[in-house]
Amino acid sequence: MPIESGSCASARQAKQKRKSHSLSIRRTNSSEQERAGLQRDMLEGQDSKLPSAVRNTLLELFGQIEREFENLYIENLELRREIDTLNERLAGEGQTVDGAELSKGQLKTKASHSTSQLSQKLKTTYKASTSKIVSSFKTTTSRAICQLVKEYVGHRDGIWDVSVAKTQPVVLGTASADHTALLWSIETGKCLVKYVGHVGSASGDQTAHIWRYIVQLPTPQPTADCNQVSGEDEVEISDKDEPDGDGDGSSDCPTVRAPLTSLKSHQGVVIAADWLVGGKQAVTASWDRTANLYDVETSELVHSLTGHDQELTHCCTHPTQRLVVTSSRDTTFRLWDFRDPSIHSVNVFQGHTDTVTSAVFTVGDNVVSGSDDRTVKVWDLKNMRSPIATIRTDSAVNRINVCVGQRIIALPHDNRQVRLFDMSGVRLARLPRSNRQGHRRMVCCCAWCEDHPICNLFTCGFDRQAIGWNINIPALLQEK
């Protein structure tokens, strides 16, 4: 009977191992579809606030992730077996050589070279698979179209705040560190009037001014079509491309130099102001840690809202009810209720770990807060203990704004990005930045203008300009 050599026996054992392993792979693949179906059934049985289309897409993506990493795991096992076989073969060859013809150093070098080749193969396979997964995620979030329509250039310093008139005529307003406030024609980008009554940057003179001007809107001129850009496109730009504020469009516009009414009660910078429903009262927020409620007609202080431990950063009023929300560097925001004239209640929301840069009302009983802790949280006023949704980002969040009709949150960032999310925390788009468009420094504030046919979102920043955008969110992404 022929005797099987040692090398043949080793080869036969290795072949049997590979055969056994291939059978286990086939068994894994055969049950893969059944397992995916079981996971889908389990998830579908759970309550979810995600739209069905988005949820199905996520299920498919997570299934793909599992399959990709399972394949990587199997390939890793095979590569490890090949490495072990190679090391055993090299060790056997080292023993058959007489004397010191093959030293341990030579054997180690040869084995290391082979191992490095296999490791490189594993890294290449892993990168290719993960790149495929990441690409599939990107393609599902770039369906929103964001188009830059108009740039409003005229300030000589950074713009702190931007707002849109809630009554006719609809104009754009900006407040700057250059001590001025400007009103703009949204359609033409022309400055309509300049207010120069303050003696400090962004109400740094500790006052809030109410002033009046009859706006004469210019005739809109045809504008060149802008290229539609996906909400995920981005090209890095430098600060040298920043627009020159000296060649501004505000030098020839009318100027208002004195206020109609001056509200004076704060002992620090007035950082924000808003009108209460009805327009007879206004609220201001200050670095003196207080918010003040004023009677507009008499300029008298009605209430001083105290309780924050550090400087206030923002204040906002409810569109239909006598509610005020204030945010602060003390990591909290507070809800002040003036619906009952005899009782002025306050609720404190604690959910951030850094400065709360803004908190705004949305539809119903929801409030959205943004923070320097790089998160945005959606709250239900009926349950203050925990947020109903949390958005985590890669940069500090400045003054957010919510499109009430479409339930979209605009997030301006320190890193010059502006991102759009829905109320459940699903990312919809990112406004484009390139050498030709977008902000070149920190974006401070956003403001929606839902019904305007040309621009429905405005942003401003430290690059001394405001930008008007046309945002088109497909109905599929807004499905609830």
UniProtKB/TrEMBL annotation:
Name of protein: WD repeat-containing protein 37
Gene behind the chain: WDR37
Segments for region (Disordered): 1-36, 222-255
Biased composition (Polar residues): 22-31
SUPFAM superfamilies on file: WD40 repeat-like
Location within or outside the cell: Cytoplasm; Nucleus
Segments of skewed composition (Acidic residues): 231-249
Species assigned in the record: Ficedula albicollis (Collared flycatcher)
PANTHER family attached to this UniProt entry: WD REPEAT-CONTAINING PROTEIN 37, WD40 REPEAT PROTEIN 12, 37
Any Gene Ontology CC annotation: nucleus
Coiled coil: none
Swiss-Prot/TrEMBL WD repeat ranges: 152-194, 263-304, 305-346, 349-389
Domain of life: Eukaryota
Gene3D superfamilies found in the cross-reference section: YVTN repeat-like/Quinoprotein amine dehydrogenase
InterPro entries in the cross-refs: WD40/YVTN_repeat-like_dom_sf, WD40_PAC1, WD40_repeat_CS, WD40_repeat_dom_sf, WD40_rpt
CDD domains noted in UniProt: WD40
Pfam families registered for this protein in UniProt: WD40 (PF00400)
Keyword field: Cytoplasm, Nucleus, Repeat, WD repeat
Upper taxonomic lineage: Eukaryota, Metazoa, Chordata, Craniata, Vertebrata
